[in-house]
Amino acid sequence: MPVDVQAEPRSRSLQDVLDGLGGVAPSRILASPPPGTATERDAIRVNERARTLCELADGSLVSKPMGFREALIALTLGSIIRRFVRERRLGIVTGADGAFRLAPGVVRMPDVAFTSWAHVPGRRVPTEKVVDFPPDLAIEVLSASNTPEEMARKRREYFDAGARSVWIVDAEARAVAVYDRRDPESARLYRESDVIEMTEILPGFKLPLEDVFGELDEQAPETP
């Protein structure tokens, strides 16, 4: 009489973990705690120690890379958006340290994020280390180690959580791909000579990209 034998589930290899995270480099995965076992508390602990900024996905802590030029572009974008938002008291603008819980076990830290007061519980700046609401706008500035698969996963997570727009900024190409929740797989591509407007999220906001990417060409004035 045949006996049914239930096969034991195959344990996940490091390659399985990397594939699930979008093909990120192994060097970006923290070894402690072991991949697949990390929790939100681990992410908070690592980020508080300021050794590196880490996001949480699939039980793994993934370091968030940022080069010097990418950091400059992120700060420029954040400063321009924050000035517009603050003058009109529209909400909160955060930088790469701002952690959002997009789903159970998924914590992302966009390089720049805008959240309208309407989506902030109590309409007050939260005290939690990881907030439990999505940003209206999430901006990710590409670094050399980011993969297309990784960024596609991030976009899905932002939109699934309720984000309204996601920007992928390529400092090298001097271009911004703008994704909208109504068509999350298609992007409008803006070049350095273009102007981005956000009629729904930030009515009246206009961003000439030459004001952003032009900072990459700055140099000290000549000494008289």
What does this structure look like?
With 224 residues, this protein is α+β, with helices and mostly antiparallel strands. It is built from 5 helices and 13 strands. A hairpin with a 2-residue loop joins strand 4 and strand 5.
Q: Helix and strand string, N-terminal first?
A: HHEEHEEEEEEHEEEEEH
Instruction: Sum up the overall morphology in one term.
Output: globular
C-alpha termini separation: 97 Å
* Proportion of beta-strand residues: 25-35%
Biggest sheet, strands in spatial order? Answer: 3-6-8-9-10-11
The class by helix and strand makeup works out as alpha+beta
Can you give the helix content as a percent range? Answer: 25-40%
Please tell me how large the radius of gyration is. 20 Å
Largest beta-sheet details: 6 strands, mixed
Can you tell me the residue ranges where pLDDT is under 50 for at least 5 consecutive residues?
1-9
Number of distinct beta strands: 13
Query: How large is the count of helical segments?
Result: 5
- Nearest-integer average pLDDT: 92
Write the SSE topology.
Layout: H1 14-20, H2 40-48, E1 54-57, E2 60-63, H3 68-88, E3 91-94, E4 99-103, E5 106-108, E6 112-116, E7 130-131, E8 137-141, H4 148-161, E9 165-170, E10 175-180, E11 183-191, E12 195-198, E13 202-208, H5 209-213
Parallel strand pairs: 4-7, 8-9
Antiparallel strand pairs: 1-2, 3-6, 4-5, 6-8, 9-10, 10-11, 12-13
Task: Summarize this entry quickly.
With 224 residues, the chain is of the alpha+beta class.
Labels describing this entry:
25% helix, 13 strands, six-stranded mixed β-sheet, disordered N terminus, alpha+beta
